[in-house]
Amino acid sequence: MSSTLGTGWMVEIAKMHGGSETDLEPAFKAVKELLPNVAAIAPNLGALGTLFQQGEIDIAPHNLSSIALLQSKGVDVDWVIPKEGSYAFGASMHVVKNPVSSAELATAYIDAALSTEVQTAMASEPYFIAPVNKNAPLTGILAEKIAKTFDDYEKYIYQDWETISKQRSEWIERFNKEVTV
User: Fold this and answer.
1) pLDDT tens, 92-107?
2) Interatomic CA distance for residues 172 and 63, integer angstroms
3) What pTM does this model have?
4) Residues 85 and 137 both lie in one domain
5) Within this chain, do residues 53 and 134 fall inside the same structural domain, yes or no?
């Protein structure tokens, strides 16, 4: 729950059961109903990857980049989009107000990160991160599973993180107390 992936998953479970980005009560109820069939709750995404590698997990929300990395290591695992759809979340980079060092250097760093060269490299093994630069090609597992063109990004569910963030700490604390196996 403390990861963006886990929080996003809980929001979508809430929506499936009548909740919303402000009401996770239906998600907590649904997860509690599943608990008798759950052997473990991974404390973080790294632990989740380990459980997949050890064959100790059958199904879990996870991101494609992590699954693709496991596949490249020979782990028999796959990533699919549920019939309800898949949520996506974007990353952002910002130059802080009154930076201690140079704003120009910070801006140059962001420009480099968004360059076609870096975005193409990040889309490749071992990172498998979907590019945001439209000049970086969508190839391999990204083209197969995520999008063939940048227009395909529109099919994903983009959650309202400004709203989610207002209650996220409380939800994480509650999850950690109530959702145990």
Assistant:
1) 888 888 877 788 899 9
2) 19
3) 0.85
4) no
5) no
* Residues 26-58 pLDDT 10s: 999 999 999 998 888 888 888 999 999 998 888
Neighbours of 65 (CB within 10 A): 18
| Whole-angstrom distance, CA of residue 102 vs CA of residue 94 | 13
Q: How far is CA 127 from the centre of its chain?
A: 14
Residue type, 166: K
Give me 45's structure tokens: 């995404």
Q: Which residues, in sequence order, are CB contacts of 166 under 8 Å at separation 6+?
A: 22
Regarding whether 84 and 95 lie in a shared domain, the answer is no
Q: Is 87 helix (H, G, I), strand (E, B) or coil?
A: strand
Q: How many domains does the chain have?
A: 2
Count other C-beta atoms under 10 Å from residue 181's C-beta: 9
Name the strand (E) or helix (H) holding 90. none
